[in-house]
Structures are given as C-alpha cells and as structure tokens.
Amino acid sequence: LGAIILKEELSWALKLSIFIVFIAIGIQIYALGKLPFISIMLPLSFALYGLLRKRLGVRTFEGLFIETMILSPFALIYLIYLSLVSNSEFGLNFNGIMLFLSGFITILPLLTFNASTKYLKLSTIGFLQYISPTLSMLIAVFVYNETLDLYKITSFVLIWISLAIAAISNLRRKNVTK
C-alpha cells in the first residue's frame, strides 16, 4: 500500500524482499491447501489502518481517543447481547467486564503504532509487522511445545531472510546519505 497508494519508492532490495515474502506466503497457502482467510485479513486490516492513519495525519493521542470512544459503546452493547442471548462466558459478568477492559491494554501498542505511521514509511511498517507472528511461533514452540512443520520453518526462514535484506539495504542507504 505504501508503494502503490503513497508512491513510496522501493529500492531493488525491498522489491526482492517483497518477492521473497510472497514466496513464503505461497508456501503457506500451498501447504494449507486453501487461502488462509484470517491470516490474510488481519495484516490487511492493519495495513489499511496504517494507511488511513498516515493519510489523515491525526495526532496520535487524539486519534486513539476518538477511535476508543467510537468503538467502546459497540463493545459494551455486544457484551450485553452476549449476556442476554447466550450462555457465553462473556457478558455482563467478571469475564465480560475484564474482556471489555482488556481493550484498554492495547492502548500502548496502538499509540506506538500510530506514532510510527508519522515517522516511518508504510513499507517499513509492513516489514516490522512480521515480528509479531515470529514471536507467536516462538511461544508456540518453546512454551507450548507445539510441533513446527518443515513448510512453516521454510516460510519463516524466507521471511527473515527478506527482513535481513530490507534491514541491510536501509542501513546501507542511511550510511551513504550521511
């Protein structure tokens, strides 16, 4: 989105990195046998959110406050709905209230994300988004003792090679401009 919509210039190294990431994603899709809808929609929603934040130019704290005020009533209404209609663990009870309040825990990551959209290129933010799934994978393997299939290892290695190429390219470009 940064390159296509914001016309951010991509170096040959970033283009190569994006190509490698697409290969890694292709491996995941092939191994799964279908398009991983949630795995595609989640980063797409963050990309669109980052693009919107970058385009609007709203200050970090004010923008997040407005977003929270707009979405909080919907979250509360949904909790009320859950408590009235279903036998869900979440509703107007301790679990539901804790779920509602947990939204406020996300403020710090959102503040830093929103602040970064002002100072970093959207393409750079896109590459940084690979840190979270990598941490999730490491927690799954080392904390929950989940097995890691060869295709997942291959995908992660390709993605981290891509990130290394992008990082080295950016470091070289900064050293040249100094």
Main traits of this protein?
178 residues; mainly alpha; 8 helices; 76% helix; 0% strand
Describe the structure.
This protein has 178 residues and is mainly α. The protein has helices spanning 12-32, 37-56, 60-85, 94-102, 107-119, 122-128, 131-142, 150-177. The chain is globular.
Summarize the structure.
The chain is mainly α and 178 residues long. The protein has helices at 12-32, 37-56, 60-85, 94-102, 107-119, 122-128, 131-142, 150-177.
Helices, by number, come to: 8
Main sheet attributes: strand count, strand direction, barrel closure: none
Global shape: globular
Secondary structure tally: strands: 0
- Kindly state the percentage of residues in helix: over 70%
Q: What is the secondary structure topology, with strand pairs?
A:
Blueprint lengths: L11 H21 L4 H20 L3 H26 L8 H9 L4 H13 L2 H7 L2 H12 L7 H28 L1
Helix pairs in contact: 1-8, 2-5
